[in-house]
């Protein structure tokens, strides 16, 4: 099993590179952002609960996200591995993920952390907002809030994975292909 946490701030290119990892290594993509947006589109209770947080660029409560990802993992059999995208985002989520993966003897292989300058993040998100229609990508103050929340609550997870010798920093500036090559090089070293 190759289980990777694809990590980085909003706009770092996690979704784009997750697609590459899925195709290259036949992994299953688990994006909590995508899962939440799909719950929202179906107007489920979970989706409606998540909505107010997502609109403001705040984190959806841990219990909601952890429950959702556990259900998803349990529903999948015979996977070659997972790419976790946008999860974990808090220490509690990281602990919960380790617990469930260790119980199943499929621990995290590595955390691939995409490093991108702040101005580039904002530019990428505003650009994405033009095509995707995602409201949270069209409002500068929501974007700023997401980056602040990332710095405050999510970035500390780098230390969490460093302690397990599982952190790999990757330069996330450059073309999609260049970054994909860097990811590939790191994965072959794991
Ligand atoms: P981005 O990485 O560009 O912010 P995502 O699609 O990963 O976009 O997430 C969109 C929103 O969904 C986040 O701003 C947050 O409100 C919510 N969300 C996604 N993943 C999580 C998570 N693991 N924990 C809490 N909230 C989450």
Q: Could you name the key traits of this structure?
A:
Rossmann fold, 190 residues, binds adenosine-5'-diphosphate
Tell me the β content: 5-15%
Let me know the average pLDDT: 97
**Rg value:** 16 Å
Integer tally of domains: 1
- By DSSP (H or I, 4+ residues per run), the number of helices equals 9
Could you give the order of strands across the largest sheet?
A: 2-3-1-4-5
**Percent of residues in helices:** 55-70%
Q: Given the helix and strand composition, which structural class is it?
A: alpha/beta
Q: List the uncertain runs.
A: none
Describe the structure.
The structure is a single chain. By secondary structure, the protein is of the alpha/beta class. It has a single domain, classed as P-loop containing nucleotide triphosphate hydrolases (Rossmann fold), CATH 3.40.50. It is built from 9 helices and 5 strands; from the N terminus they run βαβαααβαβαααβα. It has helices spanning 14-25, 32-41, 45-56, 62-74, 91-103, 118-132, 140-154, 157-163, 176-189; strands at residues 4-7, 28-31, 82-85, 110-115, 167-171. It has a 5-stranded parallel β-sheet. Helix 1 packs across helix 9 (176-189), helix 4 packs parallel to helix 5 and helix 6 packs across helix 7. The longest helix has 15 residues, at 118-132. The chain is globular. It binds adenosine-5'-diphosphate. Adenosine-5'-diphosphate (ADP) is lined by residues 10-11, 32-33, 36, 53-54, 57-60, 65, 86-87, 89, 93, 136, 146. Residues 10-11, 32-33, 36, 53-54, 57-60, 65, 86-87, 89, 93, 136, 146 line the site of adenosine-5'-diphosphate.
């Amino acid at each position: 099993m190759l289980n990777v946490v694809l990590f980085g701030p909003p706009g770092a290119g996690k979704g784009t590179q997750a697609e590459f990892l899925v195709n290259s290594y036949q992994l299953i993509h688990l994006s909590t952002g995508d899962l939440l947006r799909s719950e929202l589109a179906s107007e489920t209770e979970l989706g409606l609960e998540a909505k107010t947080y997502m609109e403001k660029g705040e984190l959806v409560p841990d219990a909601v996200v952890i429950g959702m990802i556990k259900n998803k993992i349990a529903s999948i059999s015979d996977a070659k591995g997972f790419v976790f995208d946008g999860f974990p985002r808090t220490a509690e989520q990281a602990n919960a993920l380790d617990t469930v993966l260790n119980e199943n003897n499929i621990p995290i292989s590595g955390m691939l952390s995409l490093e991108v300058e702040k101005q580039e993040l904002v530019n990428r998100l505003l650009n994405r907002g033009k095509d995707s229609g995602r409201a949270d990508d069209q409002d500068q103050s929501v974007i700023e809030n997401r980056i602040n929340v990332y710095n405050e609550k999510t970035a500390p997870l780098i230390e969490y994975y460093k302690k397990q010798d599982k952190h790999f920093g990757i330069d996330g500036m450059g073309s999609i292909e260049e970054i994909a090559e860097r990811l590939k090089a790191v994965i072959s070293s794991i």
